[in-house]
Amino acid sequence: MEFKDRLKHLLEKEGVTAYRIWKDTAITKGTIANYIEGKTNPNKSNIAILAAYFKVNEEWLASGTGYMNRPEKVRGEEPYLTTKSGLKYYEMSNGKYRMRVPFIPVKAYAKYIDDCRDVEYVSDEFEEFDFIVDKIGHGRYFAFEIKGDSMDNDSKRSLSNGDIVLARELGKEHWRNKLHTEDFPNWVIVLNNTILCKQIISQDLEKGTIVCHSLNPSPEYTDFELKLDDVCQLCNIVQRMSSAF
User: Where is the HTH cro/C1-type domain positioned along the sequence (predicted)?
Assistant: First the structure.
């Protein structure tokens, strides 16, 4: 993805023109036109101006790495609230909260699986990741990096390789009841040897099993059954941060 593509995306998303940018930023119409056509790329100064104008990350705008949306500043450095499970909430100027949770990237899957054997313990050695939320939630939340393309069907519902999701743990005492898969179709499923991201499309309460489904229609991703006794942790996905715009 080139700079011109990221700029075109922002122009369409915000509904602005090269003329409007020129009037608002003093970057000339000709310069903006050259950016859009891919004839030239902006210098650091104009990257900073455009990133501030569109309220996006400079790194993403310049190179396509990182995430498009830039973090909003929080009020003060101390958490507004720290929950019993250790989640930190920071109050934001727009009335929302920055929720800071343990982050499990693909490279840390093995360590996290080891930690999950103690259901009350999660190492403080894990990195943390922030999500913007409307309200304070209780319970245990985690951020997981998605591995592979089994949940990618090129739709807006896709969970693509490298995406980061916010997931809320469902306590084991609730597993023998009907799971709310209509409200939360996508789940992170922690097993003894791997971490999966799947949809749960059916559940047999008597047998204690679930059927997992992938969004990717490729024949290699067929539905399969799991015994809940073989599952270490179930987390329903409540938010996604895409690795692409």
Answer: 27-61
